[in-house]
Amino acid sequence: MTRLLAPLGALYGGVAAARAAAYGRGWLPRVRLAGPVISVGNLSVGGTGKTPVVVLIAAMLRDARRPVAVLSRGYRGSFRGDCLIVSDGQGVCAGPEEAGDEPVMLARALPGVVVAVGRRRDRVGRAVEARFGARVHVLDDGFQHLRLVRDLDLVCASAPDLVDRPLPAGRLRESPSALARADLILLDADGAARADLSDAHPGRVLRLRRRVLGFYGLDGIERPAPARPFLLSGIARPERFHGDVMPRVGHVAGTAVFADHHAYTATDVAAVESRARAAGADAIVTTAKDAVRLPPSSLPLLVLRIEAEVDDQTVLRARVLRAADRRKGPA
Fold first, then answer.
1. Would the pTM count as exceeding 0.70?
2. Most buried residue among 94, 103, 267, 318 by CB atoms closer than 10 A?
3. Could you tell me whether strands 184-187 and 254-257 are parallel, antiparallel, or unpaired per DSSP bridges?
4. Taking the alpha carbons of 270, 271, 277, 280 in that order, is the dihedral positive or negative?
C-alpha cells in the first residue's frame, strides 16, 4: 500500500516544499509580532515529544524572568474566533472542549505563563500583546506555520522521521529535507541516525530525551507506583506510554487504547473501570494529555508525568535566551 501511495506522498511533499520556498522568497506575506517568536514543531503528525519541549522552553524563559506566552492552534477544540485565552498566567480559563486538550495541559503545567489559542497565530499573538503587553511567544506546533516570522526554529524529530515519507504514504507533513530550515534539531535517537543527521546539519543537532518523573494524582502530588495499574490512553504513540510504565510497576493489569485526542465520555470511563476491576487493577494510569479530557473515575486515577531533557542544555538555553532578547519593532 505504501508503494501505491508513494506518488501522492511525493506530490504532498512537493507542494509543502513549494509553499515553504514561496514564503522564504517573499512571494507570500509574512507577519512579525512585536515580541520575539520561538517556534517548536516537528515533521510528523504526532508523537515526537513536541509538547514536553514546549513546556521546557516556556519554563526556561519564565524562570529567566522573561514574560512568556504560548500560542497554540487549539487542535480539536471548538473555538473558532481569533484568540481564546486558556491561561492568563494566574489560572486556567478554558476547558479542553473549547481550547483543545494540549493547550489546557500546557496551561496546567506552566503557572505564570499565558497560553492562548487560535487558528491564525499572528492574530493570537497580537491579541496577547494588546492584553498582556510585550512578551516572548513560544509557538506550539509552529514549523509549518510559516506566515509568522520566528527568531528561533526548533524542530523535534525521531529516527523514523528521517526515512519516512510525506502523507498519505507516510506520517510526515514535509519531507526530511525540510529540516534544513531548522535552527536546531532535537533528535530523540542515538547511533547511526544521529551521526548521519549531524553530518548533514553540523552544529545544529541536539540529543532529546524523555525523563519519567513518576506517578501523580490529579492534585499534582506524587504518589507511589501502583502494583497492578490499568493503562488508559488516547495519544499518537501509546506504545511509548506503555513502555514508560511497565518497568516501574509490578504488573500491568490491562490496557485501553483510544484514538489520539479522543473525547472521553462517562460511558467510556465506566467501561474502562469495569475492565480494570475485573483484571484486579489497583489504579488507572493515564497521560497528562488524557487526564484533561477524562471524566471523574471511581478508581484511583494517576498521571504518568514526563519531561523533556536535552543533553547539551547549556547550548539550548543560550540560543533560546539570545532569541528572546532580540528587540523587534511592531509589525
1. yes
2. 103
3. unpaired
4. negative
